[in-house]
Amino acid sequence: MHCRAMDKRRDKRRNRIERMFGRIKDWRRVATRYDRSPTVFLSAIMLAATVIFWL
């Protein structure tokens, strides 16, 4: 029974992360990798995550 509780908790966390990535991919700039520079791309991801967090 202890393993099932841990699996359920792990699945819940994984689902939250998957939903977050799905929301970030709604941003066209991030989904299409419009920015080729790694620094600018990371900045776009951070901006998208910040806006999603505050909504």
TrEMBL record:
Q: Which domain of life is it from?
A: Bacteria
| Transmembrane intervals | 37-54
| Pfam families attached to this UniProt entry | DDE_Tnp_1_2
Transposase DDE domain ranges (all copies): 7-53
Does the record carry Transmembrane as a key word? yes
Keyword annotations from UniProtKB, A to Z: Membrane, Transmembrane, Transmembrane helix
Instruction: Please state what the protein is called.
Output: Transposase DDE domain-containing protein
This chain's source organism reads: Octadecabacter antarcticus 307
